[in-house]
Amino acid sequence: MFTEKPESGKAITKIGGSGEAKTPFTERPATFASKSSGSSASKMVPSIIGEDLTIKGNVVSKGELQLDGEIEGEIRCGSLLLGDKALVKGGVAAEDVVVRGHVIGSIRGLRVTLQAQCHVEGDIFHQGLAIEQGAYFEGKSRRTDNPLEETKGANGSATISATASTSSPIAAE
């Protein structure tokens, strides 16, 4: 029923165990282990950025991100939940975006929800958009079939216009 503390060099043995012993520091909680066994992003535990954390730079995640702090940079993730005290200064790109806090920058998402207490200053590119009464939104709303793909296309169009402007003086000669 009880195990003794092993001396240095001795292995830990578990009575009635199936082989390898697990200690509280090597074993994950049952709730996390059961959720992480699936490969889909929706079954993963969300990454949480707390109120006391400020990030200067880009944040990329394949799964769900819950933000209660501040980010100065771009955010790309599978699903994004911006809490009441969240502040984002930069662009956001995710399949599902729920905004309760402040966003100063563009939002790109398949499904975007602006809740009553949110404050958004920037353009929204979306397939579906829901705006609750009391939400503050200043910018343009553009419905597109694939708002996340247009993020990649924006760099290409910038390159095309730069190429066109450099070739103009040559055509004038």
Model description:
By secondary structure, the chain is α/β, with parallel strands linked by helices. It has one domain (41-165). The protein is 18% helix and 36% strand. It has helices at 30-36, 149-172; strands at residues 47-49, 54-56, 59-60, 64-67, 70-72, 75-82, 87-89, 92-99, 102-104, 107-114, 119-121, 124-131, 136-138, 141-143. The strands form two sheets. Strands 1, 3, 4, 6, 8, 10, 12 and 14 form an eight-stranded parallel β-sheet that branches. The longest helix is centred in the last third of the chain and has 24 residues, at 149-172. The N and C termini lie far apart (92 Å).
Record the SSE blueprint.
Elements: H1 30-36, E1 47-49, E2 54-56, E3 59-60, E4 64-67, E5 70-72, E6 75-82, E7 87-89, E8 92-99, E9 102-104, E10 107-114, E11 119-121, E12 124-131, E13 136-138, E14 141-143, H2 149-172
Parallel strand pairs: 1-4, 2-5, 3-6, 4-6, 5-7, 6-8, 7-9, 8-10, 9-11, 10-12, 11-13, 12-14
